[in-house]
Write a structure and sequence with these properties.
Strand order of the largest sheet of chain B: 4-5-8-6-7
Protein name (chain A): Xanthine dehydrogenase
Bound molecules: flavin-adenine dinucleotide, iron/sulfur cluster
Number of helices of chain B: 10
Structural class of chain A: alpha+beta
InterPro entries (chain A): Ald_Oxase/Xan_DH_a/b, Ald_Oxase/Xan_DH_a/b_sf, Ald_Oxase/xanthine_DH-like, AldOxase/xan_DH_MoCoBD1, AldOxase/xan_DH_MoCoBD2, AldOxase/xan_DH_Mopterin-bd_sf, PaoC-like
Shape of chain B: globular
Largest sheet of chain B: 5 strands, antiparallel
Radius of gyration of chain A: 27 Å
CATH topology of the largest domain in chain B: Uridine Diphospho-n-acetylenolpyruvylglucosamine Reductase, domain 3
CATH class of one domain in chain A: Alpha Beta
Strand content of chain A: 25-35%
Organism (chain A): Teichococcus deserti
Oligomer: heterodimer
Distance between the termini of chain B: 52 Å
Strand order of the largest sheet of chain A: 4-6-2-13-10-11-12
GO molecular function, one term (chain A): iron ion binding
Organism (chain B): Teichococcus deserti
Shape of chain A: globular
CATH superfamily of one domain in chain A: Aldehyde oxidase/xanthine dehydrogenase, molybdopterin binding domain
Number of strands of chain A: 30
CATH class of the largest domain in chain B: Alpha Beta
Chain lengths: ~725, ~325
């Protein structure tokens, strides 16, 4: 189905199932431990799986000069050892910047250099510890600040509209400030894990992956196999956050290990390996210049960002939101990319906007203060309803102002004291902060296959993944709504590369695109049902397990017949995304308390107001947003991969050293979804919402901290050491 | 993890004898620290002596009015004991500020005292570490040191002791009781229990190889306001950046021990009279000779401000 005109009235608009706050249909499986995650797969084909343990490089850059494997080979239970020397010719995946199996060259710390396969896990791990590796260490670049001047301009996301330099220089009120965000780790609960089994020259990998089609393609490419020889299955994923968008070492090494051992092999990355072996969110240095008239209207907006990555990698696109969020005729955005020999940087939890708003939305707070304006009013004043770089191009929907207004009223914003450091509650300094939330809405082709069987059950198959987000549920809702059956009559099967290719889970494009794909397949199935039963599909109504037109009706089961009825289609998006700017908006409000003595910050309350198209399931959507807000607390207050700039590694590579919020850090959270339908985005009239939930949160917290203390911190995370010596003396 | 053999001991004497037979054995109690370290091959004992059956899991009154805490008393049980809560609240509070509920259910008094540092370089076998491999060097020096020591460290090691419980025991003048491998017993004041690194950071305590902790005794209650304040980046389940354990008497005299600043709980009795002149003066005296790094210089200010808040709370 081609989607190139705004959606009109369609069966989804009935909202009998879609839009309802239904429980997750996969919930019982998960809460009773019956949802098999990759490492737990009990499939017959992997019943006698052996265990692989990954050895990571002990240096960040250089060359392996010797590898002593004899002791490991002779260790109890060892079946095979895979290294670059014996793995056979390997290619590099299209989505991988760096080879997943290193050697003899080493590209980054903890790059996989060997896999030891043994009868059991303990034997594999013990044998791996016996491998001795000699290295010739080479010089590397590990310090973003130190390489900043070598960074090269990147065309992507660059803007030069109007006369930024001249207008900025002449602006009566100006801000020029630099902000930094650190390297961060996805730190999802389930590690990267895979089980691989070969059947002749075909390999099946049960894995934990967000993007089945990318993963299967890159596994085939890396192994130099025809694509159809590779099958990837990822039915349940225990969190990904961008860390599982791509083929990673666990899947490749499981396949190589299984080939070498002649048996299925399972591989999970250990927690210490995950932080340096896989991808991470790269650190940024961001310079923001804002110029405004005394009336508070922005006239010049400049945002430049520096980040680093391995040779051939990409930048953190931290300036993206600045192209679109506020009005202002003169604009400059520019990314610069330095070459670093740290592990590969890549997408994590709203890449681009999350770190970009961490900077921009502090800058807006600072600018409001310079102008003597309320930060909510300042943002409202600078709203735009069109793409500021192309005034002919409207937003499909844009309710930022409404988000700010409703949020301010609901949160009690009028009680905020504009004089920072002036509110006290016992030992705590308290403050309120706000930030705008913005995330682009991406749409991408997505397919599904539907089967109607003879007792009227509907089965949906698509390679879409559910990474804890609720995909199973919203897909079932979509099929139930379209086919007019109860949700418990729908079976959803996901995450298998033998199913139609879907949008996958990433960039908050999954929910809208994948359900739109299911919608397309449903339209086909409805046509097939109507045709088989002799109805005119244009005026047929699907309801109560029946098809009806006028006073004639028939059971769907009847149409299925003994062999069932199958329909497959995909949604393909036309150029509406060019005619209209499609984005999602929100506002975050936060109250924090800062211990007057120690400078520790604890969040007290949070509110997110989101305008993100039709909310397909308010319950699963709310879970997405409160999870994202929690990640925002992490980004604001604690998450940081600490770089050892001498040895080129993230030092705090476990969950004791890399802190993420715990329950005690997560206060009262409230989420409001504005009533919005966006017919430009898809027949579902929905948009992404999950990642919107994190965008802006950290800045709202940082702004609240400033409001509490009067000390501005521009370097994340906002830990106590960054403001302690500037806090007021104790009485 | 290296292969190891395992036995259960039924009495302290039996455990001591087993330790004599296996010179590189380790005792295992809750296992919450030892097993993690064995998986990473930082600890590589060839033999484990399980001490959980030693019947050292009671808290008993001592003739002089104090308490004797068995080595195997779980952190959860110790923190919840009514006598501890009433007379040694500092200890209860320090325990509850540590780890998580699940860990405290397993963790024991002796195991907690002997838990090893959380220096990140100690946990990475590719990095030089004098504690793991004497003479190898110390990768932390000149590296990421935000969590590490500001005082009492050496050119060989800059690690801290992470125990919250030990800070309270230090302020309360507790004494560690042991039985050596040859069967002899001794009592070691907590003040002398943890060693500073010097040239031999691998030797962390006064224990001899194979020496078993049987219990910890607390002197008679000292009264006063007992406060444990642990400062950290998140609200729970994190090691202290700095902690302050204090017992403040109505007359303003106080005992103060600091956590998170050194390889042992840091208490300087001679500096305690300075408390009368305020927290800053007291910290200047307590942390006299501190040599913080650029990353952790904030700990000195933090200790002073935290102590000031603790003293204010005690007075209120
Ligand atoms: C995730 C995590 C977070 C934590 N957070 C904190 C925290 O915030 N604050 C804090 O203070 N602690 C914290 N801890 C540490 C925890 O307190 C210790 O792991 C625990 O107290 C160790 O006790 P155990 O009985 O399990 O010791 P084990 O692991 O059994 O033993 C530890 C050591 O003591 C030796 N040993 C045990 N019993 C005896 C004995 N009777 N005589 C001689 N030697 C003995 C063992 O041989 C071993 O060397 C944390 C631990 C974890 C894993
Ligand atoms: S500080 Fe101590 S524990 Fe840390 S690396 Fe140096 S020697 Fe090892």
């Amino acid at each position: 189905m081609k989607f190139d005109k705004p959606a009109t009235l369609n069966p989804i608009d009935r909202l009998r199932v879609v839009g309802q706050p239904l429980d997750r249909i996969d919930g019982p499986l998960k809460t009773t431990g019956q949802a098999p995650y990759a490492y737990e797969h009990r499939h017959q084909a992997v019943a006698d799986a052996a265990y692989g343990h990954v050895v990571g490089a002990g240096i960040a850059k250089g060359r392996i000069t010797g590898m002593e494997l004899d002791a490991a080979r002779a260790a109890p239970g060892v079946l095979a050892i895979v290294t670059a020397a014996n793995a056979g010719p390997l290619d590099k995946g299209k989505m991988n910047t760096v080879r997943l199996l290193g050697g003899p060259e080493v590209d980054h710390y903890h790059q996989a250099i060997a896999l030891v396969v043994a009868e059991n896990f303990e034997q594999a791990r013990a044998a791996a510890a016996l491998i001795r590796v000699d290295y010739a260490v080479a010089e590397g670049a590990y310090d973003l600040a130190a390489t900043r001047d070598t960074a090269k301009k990147v065309d992507q996301s660059a803007t030069a509209t109007g006369d930024f330099a001249g207008t900025y220089a002449a602006a009566p009120v100006r801000l020029d400030a630099t902000y930094t965000t650190p390297d961060q780790s996805h730190a999802m609960m389930e590690p990267h894990a895979s089980v691989a089994a070969w059947d002749g020259d075909r390999v099946t990998v049960w894995t934990s992956n967000q993007m089945i089609d990318w993963g299967a393609g890159d596994l085939a490419r890396t192994l130099k196999l025809p694509r159809e020889k590779v099958r990837l299955v990822s039915a349940f994923v225990g969190g990904g956050f961008g860390g599982k968008l791509f083929l990673r070492a666990d899947a490749l090494l499981a396949a190589l290990g299984a080939r070498a051992a002649g048996r299925p092999v399972k591989v999970a990355l250990s927690r210490p390996l995950m932080m340096n072996n896989t991808t991470h969110r790269p650190a940024t240095i961001q310079r923001i210049r804002l110029g405004a008239g005394r009336d508070g209207r922005l006239t010049a907006i400049g945002h430049e960002s520096w980040s680093g990555d391995q040779e051939g990698g990409g930048p953190e696109t931290a300036v993206d939101q600045t192209r679109l969020l506020y009005a202002g005729a003169n604009r400059l955005t520019q990314l610069r990319l330095a070459v670093l020999d740290l592990p590969e940087g890549n997408a994590m939890r709203a890449p681009g906007e999350a770190p970009g708003l961490m900077a921009l939305e502090i800058a807006m707070d600072e600018m409001a203060e310079k102008l003597g304006m309320d930060p909510v009013a300042f943002r409202i004043l600078n709203d735009t309803q069109v793409d500021p770089n192309d005034p002919e191009r409207p937003f499909s929907q844009r309710q930022l102002v409404e988000c700010l207004r409703q949020g301010a009223a609901r949160f009690g914003w009028e009680r905020r004291d504009g004089r920072p450091g002036s509110r006290r509650d016992g030992r705590w300094l308290t403050g309120l902060g706000v930030a705008a939330a913005f995330r682009n809405n991406l749409v991408t082709q997505s397919g599904a296959r539907l089967r109607l069987d003879r007792d009227g059950r509907v089965t949906v198959e698509t390679d879409m993944t559910d990474i804890g987000t609720g995909s199973y549920t919203i897909i079932a809702q979509t099929a139930a709504e379209m086919m007019g059956v109860a949700i418990d009559r729908v079976t959803v099967r996901l995450g298998d590369s033998s199913f139609p290719v879907s949008a996958g889970s990433g960039g908050q494009w999954g929910a809208n695109s994948a359900t739109a794909g299911v919608y397309a397949a449903c339209v086909k199935l409805r046509d097939a049902v109507a045709q088989r039963l002799g109805f005119n599909s244009a005026d047929a109504v699907f309801e109560g397990g029946q098809i009806r037109a006028g006073n004639r009706s028939a059971d769907l089961a009847e149409a299925a017949g003994p062999d069932g009825l199958v329909a497959e289609d995909s949604i393909e998006f036309g150029d509406l995304a060019e005619t209209y700017q499609q984005s999602t908006f929100g506002a975050h409000f936060v109250e924090v308390a800062v211990d007057a003595a120690t400078g520790e910050t604890r969040v007290r309350r949070m509110l997110a107001v989101c305008a993100a198209g039709r909310i397909l399931n308010p319950k699963t959507a709310r879970s997405q947003v409160i999870g994202a807000m929690t990640m925002g607390i992490g980004g604001a207050l604690m998450e940081e991969l600490a770089v050892d700039t001498r040895h080129g590694l993230f030092v705090n590579h476990d969950l004791a050293g890399y802190e993420v919020p715990v329950h005690a850090d997560v206060p009262h959270q409230e989420v409001i979804f504005l009533d919005e339908v966006d017919p430009i985005s898809s027949p579902m009239k929905a948009k992404g919402v999950g990642e919107l939930g994190i965008c802006g949160v950290a800045a709202a917290i940082a702004n609240a901290v400033y409001n509490a203390t009067g000390v501005r911190v521009r370097d994340y995370p906002v830990t106590l050491d960054k403001h302690l010596d500037r806090l007021p003396a104790l009485a | 993890m290296k292969p190891f053999t395992y036995e259960r001991a039924a009495s302290p004497a039996e455990a001591a004898a087993a330790a004599r037979r296996h010179p590189d054995a380790r005792f295992i109690a809750g296992g919450t620290n030892l097993l993690d370290l064995m998986k990473l091959e930082i600890e590589t004992p060839s033999h484990l002596i399980d001490v959980n059956g030693l019947a050292l899991d009671r808290i008993e009154a001592t003739p002089d009015g104090g308490l004797r805490i068995g080595a195997l008393v779980r952190n959860t049980d110790l923190a919840a004991d009514p006598r501890i809560r009433r007379d040694y609240a500092l200890l209860s509070r320090a325990l509850l500020a540590g780890a998580s509920g699940q860990l405290r259910n397993k963790a024991t008094t002796a195991g907690n005292l002997l838990q090893r540092t959380r220096c990140p370089y100690f946990y990475d076998g590719n990095m030089a570490c004098n504690k793991r491999q004497p003479g190898a060097g110390c990768a932390a020096l000149g590296g990421v040191t935000r969590q590490l020591a500001v005082i009492g460290h050496s050119e060989a090691c800059i690690a801290t002791n992470p125990s919250d419980m030990a800070v309270a025991l230090r302020a309360l003048d507790a004494v560690v009781e042991t039985v050596a491998a040859d069967g002899s017993t001794r009592a070691i004041p907590v003040a002398e229990f943890h060693r500073l690194p010097g040239d031999t950071p691998q030797h962390e305590t006064a224990l001899q190889p194979g020496e078993l902790i049987t219990g910890v005794t607390l002197p008679p209650p000292v009264g006063g306001r007992q406060i444990y304040r642990k400062v950290r980046d998140r609200a729970s389940y994190a090691f202290a950046l700095v902690s302050v354990g204090a017992v403040v008497q109505p007359d303003g005299t106080a005992r103060v021990a600091l956590g998170g600043v050194a390889a042992r709980p840091w208490r300087v009795e001679a500096a305690e009279p300075e408390l009368a002149r305020g927290a800053r003066a007291a910290i200047d005296a307590i942390l006299d000779g501190a040599r913080p790094t650029q990353d952790n210089a904030f700990k000195v200010t933090l200790a002073a401000r935290t102590l000031q808040a603790v003293l204010a709370e005690a007075r209120s």
